[in-house]
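Troubleshooting entry. The earlier prediction with zinc ion gave an output that would not parse, so I re-checked the input for stray whitespace and re-submitted. Clean input:
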Amino acid sequence: MKNSSKKLLSIALALAIVLSCLACAAYAIVIPQDVKNVILMIGDGMGENSLEWTKAQTGEPLFLDTMPYQGYSKTDSLSGTTDSAAGGTALSCGYHCFNSNLCTLSINIKGNGATVCDFFNLTQAAQAIGKKTGIVTSDDNSGATPASFSAHTYKRELAAEITEQQINSGVDLLWAHDNGIIDSAKVEKAGFVFATTMSEIDAVPEGSRSFAAIKGNIFADTGSEADAPLSILTEKAIARLDNDKGFFLMVEGAHIDKFSHANNEKNMAMALTEFDKAVETAVEFAKDDGNTIVIVTADHETGGITLNPETKEYEYTTDGHTGTDVPLRLFGSDELVKDGAAVENIQVARFAAKKLGYTGRFPSFSYKLCSRQLRLKDISKTQACIG
Ligand SMILES: [Zn+2]
């Protein structure tokens, strides 16, 4: 494509995004009441049959099945079947983009260079209206899902840049598995108390911001003393974030995806059971609080889990992601999805922003956020996003 054509395309894309934002202003009208707190819980790779196979293995019911409003979320990105970066971008920034991209749009493309613009994410929207914000995940801190809520990069693999941005993101707490490249001095200089274990998290003074890089397992209690199970971290994070002005918290169970990539149904069920406990913890808080919405969904399904009609048993049919609709379950509002219906994943981010009481434009793209000139190798694949 000629440079002039590229320029035209980038202008058209920017215009399309602005127009879609006008449409989202109308969306605010159908959501009359905001709430104090929103907790968004993402079971990475969690399809409907991940739940069914977990129950078949454990013989136990799941709390998720008791949530009052149950529908589905569509997951495709502009690449087709999504990855966790484009999935996270949809759930946090409200845009459909290409895989690997984390909440950015590339414009003014010249040669193999471009200006990279940031989309506003849910964490930023909550911060803009004075709410506390938190991210808790069983993944490394720079994993694609937590990164979608705390960083902007055109490529998910840029772990050092993502970590740097997270440290400067203004988030009140970010508790994750250690990605091995965190400079604790930098973290502390940015105003966080740095923690590497559950007991160090417990020792964080009241009112202090905290950044935890856990070396043990978060996906479940595996019996090691170093473990910091997701449900316990979720409970502690909510207690830290709860305040008069409210909070936004994203909790991710990343290992439903990771173990399904490995076709390990036993560990997948263990990770999903822990995620389910984390959901129960959040809903118990919401019930007591009376002013909190809990949204549970997934970025995509992993493993193509299918009930074999002959053996009557579940089985994996792939070690990758699939495009099947994923569960979308809510406590505290029936406005996002009707029972059994499916909505686009980008509506989750838009709904969360409105319910938090954010009255600015969301989803949002602004030239003020186009600050970084970058050389891009995969520019043709990273430039477009659709609202
Ligand atoms: Zn995956």
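This one parsed fine. Residues 118 and 172 are 21 Å apart (CA to CA).
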